[in-house]
Design goal:
Length: 294
């Protein structure tokens, strides 16, 4: 049976997320491999890689909360909002820790964030970074994101280390840029680590060098994690053989009203205990959203 699971890889600085996925595809000889949330080349930390049928779960893993450790350099702005870009503005104005901490409050909670030009978001059918590389800058619509937690972990002027817990879709580069504007000196993202993505943490991640060695020795499956971790926050539903058969054929089954379910999605397990489908609640019935295994 083809591999069906997730990998928690500690991505090093340098390679793109696509580079990691391509190397995993070659090294494991599994055709279907994807990732659940891009990291910029300079960024490190948790990169969730989906293997086999688990590629169909990427959107669920991608939608979980993220935790980042961001190193922000004040006094310099760049066109990419990070250390890899061209300097566009500089300031020698003095900056105190209290001013930065005082500005953080405006970025906590639900905020509107304008994505950077150097991003993969599409506008009028074109990716923003393609337009940026062609020398064009266009108006971008602000998007709602949520910053659940934002704290300063260290102050080493002109650098601040921030710990950020946020919703999916938050651009930490934009946060650094906006914070720099808020304190009047400008800023850019100097370094970034994704410390957690949902239940996946950097402490539990496998180092990229170690995983490459495991692929070379064909022991990489030792690092494969259960695919249902992608939906860890959703309830579990154990089905009878008849119910599992109905789900496989696209038929609706009744919801057990004796149980309370949070939200409209659930993880479905067959009588053998295999996670094989995602259910979507429709009133008093479960409808199959995705069947993952035959």
């Amino acid at each position: 049976m083809e591999a069906f699971g997730l990998l928690n890889i500690d991505k090093p600085a340098g390679p793109t997320s696509h580079d990691i996925v391509a190397a995993v595809r070659r090294g494991t000889r599994v055709k279907k491999v994807g990732h659940a949330g891009t990291l910029d080349p300079m960024a490190t930390g948790v990169l969730v890689v989906c293997v086999g049928a688990a590629t169909r779960l990427s959107q669920y893993a991608m939608g979980s909360r993220k935790t980042y450790v961001a190193r922000v350099r004040f006094g310099i702005e760049t066109d990419t909002y990070d250390a890899g870009g061209t300097v566009t503005a500089q300031s020698d104005a003095p900056l105190e820790r209290e001013a930065v901490e005082g500005a953080l409050g405006a970025f906590r909670g639900e905020i509107e964030q304008v994505p950077p030009m150097y991003s993969a978001i599409k506008q009028d059918g074109h990716k923003l970074y393609d337009l940026a590389r062609a020398g064009q800058e266009v108006e971008r619509s602000a998007r709602p994101v949520t910053i659940y937690r934002l704290e300063m972990a260290a102050w080493e002027p002109p650098f601040a280390t921030l710990r950020v817990e946020c919703s999916a879709g938050t651009y930490i580069r934009s946060l650094a840029y906006d914070l720099g504007r808020a304190v009047g000196t400008g800023a850019h993202l100097a370094a970034l680590e994704r410390a957690a993505s949902g239940p996946f943490t950097v402490e539990d991640a496998v180092a990229w060098d170690d995983f490459q060695a495991a692929m070379a020795s064909d022991t990489w499956r030792d690092y494969l994690l259960p695919p249902d971790m992608a939906l860890a926050e959703h309830p579990r539903v154990d089905l009878t053989a008849a119910e599992a058969e109905d789900i496989r054929h696209g038929r609706l089954i009744p919801v057990d009203e004796a149980r309370e379910f949070a939200g409209d999605l659930a993880r479905a397990y067959d009588p053998a205990g295999r996670f094989f489908a995602i259910l979507e609640r429709r009133g008093i019935r479960w409808k199959p959203r995705k069947v993952l295994l035959p």
